[in-house]
Amino acid sequence: MRTINVATAFSGIGAPEQALRKLKIPHNILFAGDIDIFCKQSYFANYPISEDRWHNDVKEFDATPYKNLVDLFIGGSPCQSFSVMGKRKGLDEARGTLFYEYARIISETKPKVFVFENVTGLLNHDHGKTWDVVSRIFDDLDYSWTYWKLNAKHFGLPQNRERLFAVGFRRDLEPYFALLKTPKKEELNVFVESFLEKDIPNKYYLPEKGFVRVIDPAQSKHVVLNSKISRCQVACQQYNWFGDMRFESFVTPELEKDTRVFKGYYNGERGVARTLTPRECLRLMGFPDDFKIVVNDTRMYRQSGNSMAVNVVEAVLRSIMETGVFDGKDAD
């Protein structure tokens, strides 16, 4: 298998790179970037990249030097509504939005394949007008493309995280696109408990105020205790006792002595409650334990919640690879 040239924008902490590693696909990172300087710290700690191949602000990034060099381009830009009257075609329709920058990079580099990830709400955002613009631009860029709605819980991760994935093949590669198949869903046979760490530092256990909040049924929109399948992780995961929490009825002597950690009752059992750790959140996103954590907890929670789910990206990339588009062979 030949080495493929990969490029990303809005790169975060590198879910596509992790997916490529899991698939054992040789790859070279041509460029990556993110406006969050702390994402840059995490990215540089985990992937082989030099300063000259990293962009801090996609709006200032000139991708033209990479024209016809990119095999696979992946990104997931935020999509604002496009307040353009009429139905003009072309990139101007999205100018001023971050999707414009994503599409511009496609226009400048002409990758063989692109993958665009976003929330499924994009499909009906602004009464469907935003998706209409996105669709026309993908057409105008001269790509054959399709999209799928994929949920992490169907790909080995106990997390209810549904996302939109649009996959496009350059029009001259249409025979390969015709071979593209929707990733196969799997029956989930692992649950959150399997992703938990064994030794949890005391700092993740809640004081009385937090304990009372997370066991309160009135907070069920914001907090879930001991779920088998976690809620969708978000940027504010674990902030202010928000998201997935764990109640533990076994209280270690060390926790008993810690006066900051509250010991209370939930469903008739005495115990303690805690947040998920950053490592647990990363596991639920499909990141391996050798992913280096080099930022503080608050930033790691945000980076994890903003990432793509590695297992889902892996399934998307597997479907792409199975077409043979990067092998240089004739499509059957």
Can you describe what's shown?
- The protein has 332 residues and is of the alpha/beta class.
- The protein contains ten helices and eleven strands.
- The chain has helices at 15-22, 37-46, 98-109, 129-140, 174-177, 208-215, 253-257, 278-284, 297-306, 310-321, and strands spanning 4-9, 27-33, 54-55, 72-75, 113-119, 143-151, 162-170, 223-225, 243-248, 264-266, 269-275.
- The strands form two sheets. The chain has a seven-stranded mixed sheet with strand order 3-2-1-4-5-7-6, sandwiched between helices.
- α1 (15-22) crosses α10.
- The longest helix is centred in the first third of the chain and has 12 residues, at 98-109.
- It starts with a strand and ends in an 11-residue tail after the last helix.
- The model has no long low-confidence stretch (mean pLDDT 93).
Summing up helix and strand content along with how strands pair, one would put the structural category as: alpha/beta
Q: How many helical elements? A: 10
Radius of gyration: 22 Å
| Largest sheet descriptor | 7 strands, mixed
N-to-C series of helices and strands: EHEHEEHEHEEHHEEHEEHHH
Oligomer: single chain
Strand order of the largest sheet: 3-2-1-4-5-7-6
The shape is elongated
Distance between the termini: 18 Å
Helix percent reads 25-40%
Approximate strand percentage: 15-25%
The residue ranges in which pLDDT falls below 50 over 5 or more consecutive positions are none
- Mean pLDDT across all amino acids: 93
| Counted beta strands | 11
